[in-house]
Structure formats: C-alpha cells, structure tokens
Amino acid sequence: MYKRIIYMGLGIACLSLTFSSCKSPAVLQKTANTAVPESYNGSQDSTNTATVTWREYFKDPHLRNLIDTALANNQELNIVLQEIAIAKSEVREKKGEYLPFVGLRAGAGLEKVGRYTSQGANDANTDIRPGEEFPEPLGDFLIGAEASWEIDVWHKLRNAKKAAVTRYLSSIEGRNFMVTNLIAEIADSYYELLALDNQLAIVKQNIDIQSNALEIVKLQKAAAKVNELAVKKFEAEVLHTKSLQFELQQQIVQTENRINFLLGRYPQPIEREYQGFEDLVPETVHLGLPSQLLANRPDIKQAELDLMAAKLDVKVAKARFYPSLGISAGVGFQSFNTKYLLETPESLLYSVVGDVTAPLINRNAIKAAYYGASAKQLQAVYNYEQTILNAYVEVVNQLAKIDNLEKSYDLRSKEVEALTASIDISNRLFKSARADYMEVLLTQRDALEAKVELIETKQKQMSSVVNVYRALGGGWN
User: Fold this and answer.
1) Domain residues for 335?
2) CA separation for the pair 7, 19 (Å, rounded)
3) CA-CA to 51 of 20 to 30 Å: which in 134, 239, 314, 456?
4) Quick one: which of 143, 141, 140 has its CA closest to 105?
5) Are residues 38 and 128 located together in one domain of the fold?
C-alpha cells in the first residue's frame, strides 16, 4: 500500500517536472534567401572558369613555382590548418560526450574512531568472525569500476556533435577560401612586379633620350641658338626622371619582399622574366551562372555551414529545457583487510542508479543561452545572405573592369604611339628652330607618362583577370 503511494507520488512529480520544463520561449525564425539573378550579362553558358585549376589558369612557370612554395610554407595558411585540427578534436570530444563514461577506481584508507562514540561502542561489541574482535584501527580497501551515461533522449548531445562536425567542415572551407585569396594575392603581386620592371626600363630609356637632348641643347647654347635657361630646364628634367628611377627601385624591393613574406621566407630576389609583359593576353574568362557561386565559392559554403551549425546550437539550447535522464552504475570489491578483498559475496558491492533532472525554478541561464543561440542563428542567416550578395557583386565588378580596361588599353596604346612619334618630330623641329625647347620637354614628359600609364593599365588588366578568377571561386581546387 505504502509502496504504491510512493510510486504514484514519484510519477506525478516526474510528469510535473516534464511539463513545466518542456516549455521553451518563442524566438524569431528566419530562412536564408539564397536566390541570385539568372545570369551576369544575359548569357546562359554554364562553362565556368572556376573549375580550372590554378596550374592551368596561370601559364607563367615562375609564378607557378611561387604559388607552390607559398602553399607549402605560408605561416598564416599553416595556422589555419591547425585550426582545422582543433575543430577535428572538438568533434571527437563531442562524440565522446554521448557515449557511456567508464572508469576504474582503487583506494586505500585507515580510520580510528573514538571508543566512547556510538560507532566505536558498537564496533567494540561486534565480532567479524568467532573469536576475532573488530579490528582497530579500521582499514578500508576498494577496487572497482564505475560507469555513468546520460541517455540522449532529446538529441542534445548528438546535435552538439553534429554542430562540431559542421564547424569542422566550415574550417576546411575557410582554409580553401584562404588558399584562393593567397593564390590571387601572389599572382596580383607578381604582375605588379613585372609592371614595375617594365616601368623602370621605360624610365631608363627616357633618361638616355633626355640626356641626349640635354647634350644637343648644350651644343645649341654654345652656338648661341638657345640660352642658359633652356639648358637648366633640360637638366632639371633629366634629374627628375632619374629620381623616378630610384622610386621605382624601392617599389620593386617592397613588392619582392611582400611576395617573399607570402612565401614564408626571408627577402631574396624573385625569379621572373619581365620582357614581353606588354604582349601578355589576359585569359578568356567564362563566368558560368550565378547559381554556381554557391558551389564554387568557399566563403559561401563556409557561411552555409556556419548557419547549419548555428541551427543545431539552437536545438541544443532548446533541449536544455527538457528533463535529462542519467544512469550510473558501479561494481567492485571493498573490505577492511586486503586478504578479504576478493572474497565473494561478502566483499562484493554493486549499485545501479537512474535519475531524472529537469529545470524547474530560475531558468534564466538556460533562457539566456537559448536567446543567445537564436540571435547567433539570425546573425548567421544575414552573414550567409551578405556573403552571396558580395560574391555576385565582386564578379559583376570584375566583369565590367575587364571590359573597360580592354578598351582603355587600346586607346592608351594609340596615345603612346602618337607621343613616341611626336618626340622625333619635336626634336627635328627644335634643331631647325621651328619649335622651342619647352615643346620638346613637354612632349618627352607626356610620352614618358603615357608609357608608364600604359604599363599600369596592362597590370590592372592582369590583376582583373586574377581577381575575377578569385571572385568566381577558382584556385582552391
């Protein structure tokens, strides 16, 4: 009768705990919008340059060697690889949490109680065996095994493990995105270095041209055809151009060292062939479809995985409102003397305990964790949408840049041809006194600036081809 009443009371208590704790506060839910335009420029061609490996995309053997070295030695990339290892360890940790914990236990102790205490008086009158008094002091020896297991009824632990797996996959995509950016940064710096080499060569050529012009002006001054002012103007122009030479040399040193840093090595010369830079033809880029960005861009896949992990975190936080069921058990041997330690059944002990625990009062910490996980989920949704939008905008910008730079380069090439021809014309006119020295100086300066700007435009062309490859998600595969 009493047992029945006790069981009924325990059942009612468990039900009340269950109903009171299973209520979780409502939070705002949002589904990510992954819709993108159907095309970039009206084309439905699904051929995508992002599927081309970087070894095929970049033809320069020196650039390939630089990228190979960077992928092996770049410190930041190696740091990211360790983050992947950390994420992998977290997966193993979370996986172990929903499996039973089993441990071994051994212990030894000694206890002396006062004779004039209730325990001491009782022990003094107790015989362990006929003719043997209760030992004093009393030893305590134990050896056994213990096990505990939280039964994952609400999948709290399994969802935590899935979230850890998802973040591990996210860290891999983060590494892929870094590889994409690293390759693009090296290629961009390499083409910048080639452009600086060509600009330096142009400046040196102009120094020779201007030096020859200065000698002609000096001869004409000696012939009283021009005055000292013309000589000083030409001399100043030569000095100005020579100063540009050292500025370019400094930029070359800094660009080389930037590449060396990306390669994870100390400053040293970068092997390259700068001749023929003006004749480089940018690779033909196939944009494919915008929807392919979701599969090709590592940062988009990383944002998607982060969103999946955030959703699992919400489920884990919600499961904390529910009762948790735990089972613990133990088995072993315990005695006051080692010679009795393994005697059965006298020294044998075992236990099995099951318990249900549920939050009932003061659930503020659980609510705070739940609201925080929900807010992070919304944050992950917005980050995912923003990453997709940013990827699309990057591709469109680089597409427009490639087109505009191609037109700009054609016009600047014609400008350079015209100004190069005008140098000879101005020199002939100056020698025949049909043009003054200022016209010669301005023509030479304009021609130099036009040639330098032409090289800069070519460098921007190559840079845009590199960046559109990165924007499409190429390089990491």
Assistant:
1) 100-151+325-357
2) 18
3) 456
4) 143
5) no
Give the integer Cα–Cα distance in Å for 245 and 200.
6
CATH of the domain at 169: 1.20.1600.10
CA distance 212 to 81: 58
Q: Is the pLDDT of residue 202 over 70?
A: yes
pTM of the full predicted structure? 0.83
Quote the pLDDT of residue 7: 43
91 domain-assigned? yes
Provide the pLDDT for residue 11: 52
- In terms of domains, do 90 and 141 share one? no
pLDDT tens string 236-251: 989 999 999 999 999 9
**Four-CA torsion 156, 160, 165, 166, nearest 10 degrees:** 100
Q: Residue 281: how many CA atoms within 13 Å on its side-chain side?
A: 1
Contact assessment for residue 250 and residue 203, using Cβ atoms and an 8 Å cutoff: no
Shortest CA distance to 83 belongs to which of 156, 158, 177, 157? 177
Q: How confident is the model at residue 227 (pLDDT cuts 50, 70, 90)?
A: confident
CA 225 to chain centre: 68
User: What φ, ψ does residue 388 adopt, rounded to 5°?
Assistant: -65, -45
Residues 161 and 138 in one domain: no
